[in-house]
Amino acid sequence: MSKRSARDYSVWRTVRRLMRDTLPIAWALVIAAVVCVVSVLLSVVGPEVVNKATDIIYDYGETGTPIDMATLGELCLTALIAYAVMGVLSMLRVVLTTNITSRYYTKGLRIRISDKITRLPVGFLDSTPNGELLSRMMNDVSNMSNTIYVIVDTLIDGVVRIVVITYFMYKVHWILATAVVILVPLSVALSAVISSRSEKSWHDFRKINGEMYAFIEEDFSGFDTVKAFNLESRQRQRCDALSEQYRQKMRRSYMLSGLIQPIIAFTDNIAYVAVCIAGGILAVRKVVDVGDVVEIILFAKMFAGPLESIANGMGSVQHTLACANRVYKLLDAAEMPLTSDPAPRGAGEVRFDHVCFSYDKVTPVIKDLTFTVKPGQKVAIVGPTGGGKTTIVNLLMRFYDADSGHIYIDGVDAASMDRAQLRGLFGMVLQDTWLFNGTVYDNIAYGKPDATREQVVEAARQAYADHFINTLEHGYDTVINEESANISGGQKQLLTIARSYLADAPMLILDEATSNVDTRTELLIQRAMDKLLCGRTAFVIAHRLSTIVNADVILVVDRGEVVEQGTHAELMAKGGFYKSIYDSQYELLK
Q1: What residues contact residue 36 under an 8 Å CB cut-off, 6+ apart?
Q2: pTM value?
Q3: Helix, strand, coil shares, percent, the chain, to 5
Q4: How many CB atoms lie within 10 A of CB 590?
Q5: What distance in Å separates the CA atoms of residue 503 and residue 482, rounded to the nearest whole number?
Q6: Strand-pair category, 378-382 with 553-558
Q7: How far apart, in whole angstroms, are the C-alpha atoms of residue 207 and residue 323?
Q8: For residue 207, which of 116, 327, 117, 110 has the smallest C-alpha distance?
Q9: In terms of C-beta distances under 8 Å and separation of at least 24 residues, what long-range contacts does 583-588 make, across chains too?
Q10: In whole angstroms, what is the distance from residue 233 CA to residue 548 CA?
Q11: Which segment, 8-12, 428-432, 435-439, 532-536, is predicted with the most confidence on average?
Q12: Is the pLDDT of residue 270 over 80?
């Protein structure tokens, strides 16, 4: 299959899918289509009235026949009523299509995208910039929704109007009608050629638009770092380069789309001139009445409206196809395989059995990993950066699935469990805290939405967060801003511990939660975590080995393998890799 045919297939497949997605609002589109047809039928009343009125006036000038003012008044009133009803119907059509599109189509598509994101593998989200996803969900969906209006306004209104006008023109006189419509196929063919070129340009434009969104999101989220390292000029250069690409792609896309309308207007004006010349000749020869010529001329001018609408619509549709391709690629992305077995609510035994894993399916990160964690044990995972510590947690939470081997939780293969239920077995306190824009209360209750206020307050007390919360201006009802800048890093950490305490999961994952706080806050966090760990199986990713000397089991991971295993005392006595890491940290503290 050639590149051209492959692209055409993609276009038609996208168009069919767009049509299928409009089925939920088909009733509204049908009403809008009926309104269009009625409006088109009323639009031919004007030229008919002008034809009869012109003949009345022409007869008076030629033969002296008295003008029937009553008939002339009725004709004017008929035209006035017809145009007034047309205006009302046009307003109704716009309101109907706009409201229905925004309320149902756009909203429904964004909900589908949001739901899709929750089912995508973590690897997809890790490799896709946040700004790119935002661009598809907001910008591209908005452009797609605009096409629904174009479908009604162009494909229905424009086509029906051309058919009806053509019929009435031929009803008046076939020679003049032919002069009007003979150039239409030529203009449509030229527009189709330009439109096909425009489709690829719009696709490239939407791609660079997504890159711009990603850059802006990255630049704003790292604003402090950019300032701290004086990288403003470099970021400005990157922004200028992307902006220049954006400008060039946008200019080419709009230029190609903009060529369509002038071509239609040019051919339409040629048809208008041809009608005027041919009509004048036929009227002089008494082949047609003057009123017929005037009516055909009016119909010829009316051709400009639907043809130009079709021209604009063709450019808009090409823009939309580029947006739709990006949205549908997201909606069609491979999802995580569904598993539905219930997760056990047992004692909390975890066993890795010859687990192997690679992010890129080429470079192994975890190699033949085997170990067992007994219920209630505190297991520390230590090792150099890039050794596989975080990957073990990712596999345990099924953010990724193992390439081979098995992970058992209370004797049940984790790969067969429902992901939501599996993750419900774990509470997480990470080094990088995450709080959303809401009240302190809402952030703690996030771990258990149905919790009572008393339970939330008790969780805060157990996490040693109650005291500082009560010192805030509005206590538990204090709103945490988007960047959580109105509370300290240690306070954020205490809130996440309170959240995990409230969730009351049987197992915990801790990722060096005290590494970015002062000594006093570290003591509070350590006490809070000791309470949290009581009676639970816990996995602690440790960077400072002094914090895990009391762990029941220490797994020393290097290059995806457990190279040593045992208690702190056992590993120190062994004098191996763990001891060398511990001694090196001790030397740094001297």
Answers
A1: 93, 152, 156, 157, 160
A2: 0.61
A3: 70, 10, 20
A4: 4
A5: 23
A6: parallel
A7: 9
A8: 327
A9: 585/544, 585/545, 585/546
A10: 44
A11: 435-439
A12: no
Q: Give 273's contacts (C-beta < 8 A, 6+ positions apart).
A: none
3-state SS, residue 565: strand
Distance CA 382, CA 494 (A): 23
CB 415: neighbour CB atoms within 10 A? 16
Nearest-angstrom CA–CA distance, 44 and 22: 31
- List alpha helices for 433-576, DSSP H: 440-445, 453-462, 466-471, 489-503, 519-533, 568-574
DSSP 415: G
Domains 13-331 and 350-589 belong to one CATH topology = no
Q: Hey, where are the domains in the chain?
A: 13-331, 350-589
* Measured CA distances, 350 to 41, 354, 426, 511, 537 (Å): 74, 13, 12, 18, 9
Instruction: Give the separation between CA 359 and CA 374, rounded to whole angstroms.
Output: 28
Rounded to 5°, the CA angle 307-308-311 comes to: 90
DSSP-H helix ranges across 332-354:
none
125 Cβ contact list (under 8 Å, min separation 6): 117, 133
Confidence grade of residue 417 (pLDDT, cut at 50, 70, 90): confident
β-bridge mates for residue 412, sequence order = 409
Rounded Cα distance, 477 and 470, in Å: 10
Class of domain 350-589: alpha beta
CA-wise closest residue to 519 among 546, 557, 551, 542? 546
CA dist 429 and 438 (Å) reads: 19
> What's the sign of the alpha-carbon dihedral 574, 577, 578, 581?
positive
Backbone angles phi, psi at 482, to 5 degrees: -60, -40
> In whole angstroms, what is the distance from residue 300 CA to residue 18 CA?
33
Whole-angstrom Cα distance, residue 296 to residue 302? 10
Rounded distance, CA 382 to CA 558, Å?
9
**87 CB neighbour count, 10 Å cutoff:** 11
How many beta carbons lie within 10 A of that of residue 261, not counting itself? 18
Name the burial class of residue 131, with classes exposed (0-12), middle (13-18) and buried (19+) by CB atoms within 10 angstroms of its CB.
buried
Least confident range of 39-43, 108-112, 544-548: 544-548
Dig out the tokens for 110 from the structure.
Answer: 């964004």
Which of 21-30, 350-359, 415-424, 481-490 has the lowest average pLDDT?
Answer: 481-490
- 108, 24 contact by CB (below 8 A): yes
Say what the alpha-carbon torsion angle 578, 582, 587, 590 is, to the nearest 10 degrees: -170
Q: Which fold, 13-331?
A: ABC transporter transmembrane region fold (1.20.1560)
Residue type, 394: N
| Strand (E) or helix (H) holding 366 | strand 366-373
State the Cα–Cα distance between residues 290 and 284, nearest whole angstrom.
9
Read off the amino acid at residue 464.
Answer: Y
Please give the order of strands across the beta sheet that includes 404-409. 366-373, 350-357, 404-409, 412-413
Closest by CA position to 509, among listed 413, 424, 402: 424
Complete DSSP assignment for 498-512: HHHHHHT-SEEEEE-
